[in-house]
Amino acid sequence: MSPYLSELIGTAILILLGNGVVANVLLSRTAGNQSGWIVITAGWGLAVALAVYSVGRIGGAHLNPAVTVGLASIGEFSWGLVPGYIACQLIGAIVGACLVWVTYYPHWNITEEASLKRSCFCTAPAIRHKGANVITEIVGTAMLVFGVLAIGANASEVGGESQVGDLASAFSSGFAPLLVGLLVFSIGLSLGGPTGYAINPARDLGPRIAHAFLPIPGKGDSDWNYSWIPVVGPILGGVLGAVFFRIAGF
Question: What proportions of the chain, in percent to the nearest 5, are helix, strand and coil?
């Protein structure tokens, strides 16, 4: 499998499970209806971990343009691969959102509030304040990329051989994806309240595009006036998190 295809499939898995838990909590007459923010954040953390476990060994499982650009900005990833990675992440996010729509097909019609339907695809702020909303996304994504780099750095500190093989490889492939999922869980719990913590341009823009073209009864508009914030904020945050990690000497 090519790294590009792995990014597409991995991002589709991420959105299927991540937006899937949002749909389970928000849509009417689901088993998880109104089960709350803890369920959403836990579901997103598990979605990230499982997506990374699925494709990480192939293309690195960026699954996020902010991660891709952040790594490229400090020389940890080739700029020549960036456009292809981002394109595949965006396509994968659209595919994942369409799978959520199919999975919950009967529930769109019986859910009355258009804003709840849209929230199953993309984020929206609790309080609309463009400056504050951008800063929230910058801070959250900087923490994400910093944390991902820190987890990766810890893998390099694990050395030696054991009866089960190379410990550094075992940490990277066996334990690190779970830690990344816990990182996303923590970010959601601590920083997700103001904007719904997109922290990933593909995660927000891809499903927002799907929301715009899917035949969802009473879906309302796709809130394009807000759509630039979960794209620009995470990209800036990804670069800042990566650069800080590098210049601070971690």
Answer: 70, 0, 25
- Token pair in block for residue 229: 């914030």
- Whole-number Å distance between alpha carbons of 104 and 106: 6
Rounded Cα–Cα distance for residues 118 and 138 (Å)? 23
Domain locations in the chain as residue ranges? 3-247
Please answer whether residues 122 and 208 qualify as being in contact, where contact means their C-beta atoms are separated by less than 8 angstroms. Answer: yes
CA 190 to chain centroid: 16
Cα atoms in the Cβ-side hemisphere of radius 13 Å centred on 5 = 2
DSSP structure class, residue 125: -
When mean pLDDT is compared across 9-13, 15-19, 58-62, 107-111, the lowest value belongs to 58-62
**Where is 203: in which H helix or E strand?**
helix 201-213
Model confidence at 163: pLDDT above 70: no
- What is the C-alpha to C-alpha distance for residues 58 and 42, in angstroms, rounded to an integer? 25
Separation between Cα atoms, residue 243 and residue 94, nearest integer Å: 30
228 HSE (CA, 13 A, CB side)? 3
Q: Which two tokens stand for residue 101?
A: 């729509």
Beta bridge partners of 166: 161
Report how far residue 123's alpha carbon sits from residue 65's, in angstroms, rounded to the nearest whole number: 16
Task: Kindly calculate the radius of gyration of the chain based on its CA atoms and give it in whole angstroms.
Answer: 18
CA 74 – CA 243 distance, rounded (Å): 6
The architecture (CATH level 2) of 3-247 comes to: Up-down Bundle (1.20)
